TrEMBL record, chain A:
It comes from the Bacteria. The keyword GTP-binding does not apply. Keywords: ATP-binding, Lyase, Nucleotide-binding. Residues 17-257 form the ABC transporter domain. The keyword Lyase applies. One of its GO terms (molecular function) is lyase activity. It comes from Pseudogemmobacter lacusdianii. Pfam families: ABC_tran. This is Phosphonate C-P lyase system protein PhnK. The gene is phnK.
Automatic annotation (TrEMBL), chain B:
It catalyses: alpha-D-ribose 1-methylphosphonate 5-phosphate + AH2 + S-adenosyl-L-methionine = alpha-D-ribose 1,2-cyclic phosphate 5-phosphate + methane + 5'-deoxyadenosine + L-methionine + A + H(+). Keywords: 4Fe-4S, Iron, Iron-sulfur, Lyase, Metal-binding, S-adenosyl-L-methionine. The keyword Metal-binding applies. Belongs to the PhnJ family. This is Alpha-D-ribose 1-methylphosphonate 5-phosphate C-P lyase. Catalyzes the breakage of the C-P bond in alpha-D-ribose 1-methylphosphonate 5-phosphate (PRPn) forming alpha-D-ribose. It comes from Pseudogemmobacter lacusdianii. It is an enzyme of class 4 (lyase). Its EC number is 4.7.1.1.
Length: 263, 288
């Protein structure tokens, strides 16, 4: 019900991210092909599919880490693919954020937790040490890391803490759009559950728009308003999460849903 | 006496032309690291081959050369570079800062203010100020290009978080004309203010890394800091024990095995000049 309302109010606004016919090839092999969707402010889009189905390829094209071979991509009405590299990188460190599956890819392992969280602030011009530190302390609290760990390096953190630190580091500049590639992958089940709760709270409190890749249907059930199912680089089914999961239309989605239920 | 086996100042004219082109480009884009084809020099890299090549490219027969290492004219490094240029170019040499037209230096800027027409050549071991946090050269070049310098402040942040203050005492990073972040070579941060608005031409040569960069006269050079932790050009809280100077950069010298110490100006020419003028310090011989 809540989701329905959110959906309705979101639809009234213009899309935050608009994707048209996006394709990316690796030589002759398809990475992802002809993907189109709109993401509205405050909406969470889940992307599921088996290994090799093109989820990460699509996400990295959306986030500007790879250039698509065909298709269009606009953010807030701006043609992202036409931006200069300087403008694109500015977007990446202010309005957008990217949470990697492996926290080592998204953190500076040689820099303290506080420095990791503060980096994006300094990158956009913060020059007051005391304020940077206060903000970092606040954010560590929000991701349930004790304030006294602020000067520890991430290498001294558990996998779950590292992932939460990566999330804090990304959200500290209040981005509008967050890309996440398997943010709960590689963590054990109890840690996953806690991280999911935390993510759900942050997404709701901050009104974030999110594109999240996973092959865990429990993750999308909990987080995603809408869902896209990918197979062999194509989107084979898309719709409201509950509808897709409760009444899958495509044979592949049926298999995916039933295979999870069997486990 | 000039050694006739070599071209003037050792390098051939072709190489000097290449170096001068790099220098002109560096002067045109203050603080930007210009790649150049570094040559083998008859001395090891740690001895300032970058500085030596820059000096060789600038030297003319009417120049008067001064070479200092840590402020001193008489260390092995300084003496051998000075001899090298005496032998290969026959130019006049001096220890007096004011009389020199070219000063090659390692780790210091002379105390005596430089004047228009002088050239200060720095020996640089690591030209890239972003190296310590971002080892990928492709990425650091991109960061310079796009002015993405947030990482420099991460380094300063880490300093303060760990030590309560910015503990970087040498090679303290600066921003040049509001554009490029630059490593001023391992001079003490005490010297950083002298980089700013200097009437002299300042040239930086990194031999091993094949980079040249420069500050033309009267360039704005600002040391990076935080609003609530402003940059401070610190020095030892002492006066020179030989000349009594309270404002020069001091070296601490252990004088016996009981742990007695003295503080002396690191700039030997400056200190000797003051002593000759009659200035006295705590440990000066009583009878002059
Ligand atoms: N760098 C690359 N070079 C060549 N082919 C690639 C590259 N990256 C991905 N591919 C191919 O593109 C297709 C999609 O891969 P992608 O990594 O996007 O899948 P995925 O859905 O993220 O898989 P997983 O769930 O295992 O992470 C696969 O066939 C893969 O082999
Ligand atoms: Mg993937």
């Amino acid at each position: 019900m809540v989701m329905m309302e959110r959906q309705l109010s979101a639809q009234a606004a213009a899309p935050l991210l608009s994707v048209q016919g996006l394709s990316r090839y690796y030589g002759a092999r398809i990475g992802c092909k002809d993907v189109s969707f709109d993401l509205y402010p405050g909406e969470v889009m889940g992307i599921v599919g088996e290994s090799g189905s093109g989820k990460s390829t699509l996400l990295s094209c959306l986030a500007g880490h790879q250039r698509p071979d065909a298709g269009g991509l606009s953010y807030n009405g701006v043609d992202v693919l036409a931006l200069s590299e300087a403008e694109r990188r500015r977007l990446l460190r202010s309005d957008w954020a990217y949470v990697h599956q492996n926290p080592r890819d998204g953190l500076r392992m040689g820099v303290s937790a506080g420095g990791n969280v503060g980096e994006r602030l300094m990158a956009v011009g913060a020059r007051h040490y005391g304020q940077i530190r206060d903000t970092a302390t606040d954010w560590l609290g929000r991701v349930e890391i004790a304030a006294e760990r602020i000067d520890d390096r991430p290498s001294a953190f558990s996998g779950g803490m590292q992932q939460r630190l990566q999330i804090a580091r990304n959200l500290v500049t209040a981005p509008k759009l967050v890309f996440m590639d398997e943010p709960t992958g590689g963590l054990d089940v109890s840690v996953q559950a806690r991280l999911l709760d935390l993510l759900r709270g942050l997404v709701r409190d901050l009104g974030l728009s999110v594109v999240i890749v996973t092959h865990d249907l429990a993750v999308v059930r909990l987080l995603a308003d809408r869902l896209m199912v990918m197979k062999s680089g194509h989107v084979v089914e898309a719709g409201l999460t509950d509808q897709v999961l409760d009444d899958p239309q495509h044979a592949y989605t049926q298999l995916l849903v039933s295979s999870v239920l069997q486990v | 006496m000039t050694d006739q086996a070599y071209n003037f100042a050792y390098l051939d004219e072709q190489t000097k032309r290449m170096l001068r082109r790099a220098l002109l480009k560096a002067l045109a884009v203050p603080g930007y690291q210009v790649p150049f084809a570094s040559r083998e020099m008859p001395m090891p890299y740690g001895w300032g081959t970058g500085g030596v090549q820059v000096t060789a490219a600038c030297l003319t027969p009417v120049d008067r050369l001064k070479v200092i290492d840590q402020g001193a004219d008489d260390t092995t490094n300084a003496v051998s570079i000075r001899r090298f240029f005496q032998r290969t170019s026959g130019v006049a040499v001096t220890e007096a800062t004011a009389e020199a037209t070219i000063i090659q230096t390692r780790h210091r800027i002379p105390e005596q203010p430089l004047s228009e027409g002088q050239i200060l050549v720095y020996q640089v071991p690591i030209p890239e100020p972003l190296r310590f946090l971002e080892p990928r050269e492709t990425e650091t070049r991109k960061m310079h290009e796009l002015e993405e310098y947030g990482l420099m402040h991460v380094k300063l942040y880490e300093d303060i978080a760990r030590h309560g203050e910015v503990s970087t005492a040498y090679a303290y990073p600066v921003k040049v004309e509001g554009r490029y972040v630059m490593d001023p070579s391992p001079i003490p941060k005490f010297d950083n203010p002298k980089l700013n608005d200097s009437p002299a031409i300042q040239l930086f040569g990194a031999g091993r890394e094949c980079r040249i960069y420069a500050l033309p006269p009267f360039t704005k050079v600002v040391s990076l800091d935080f609003d609530d932790h402003p940059f401070q050009a610190s020095k030892a809280e002492h006066n020179c024990d030989l000349c009594g100077c309270g404002t020069s950069y001091l070296d601490e010298v252990i004088t016996d095995d009981q742990g007695s110490r003295m503080f002396v100006c690191s700039d030997t020419d400056f200190c000797a000049t003051r002593q000759a003028e009659g200035h006295r310090g705590r440990l000066s011989p009583e009878a002059a």
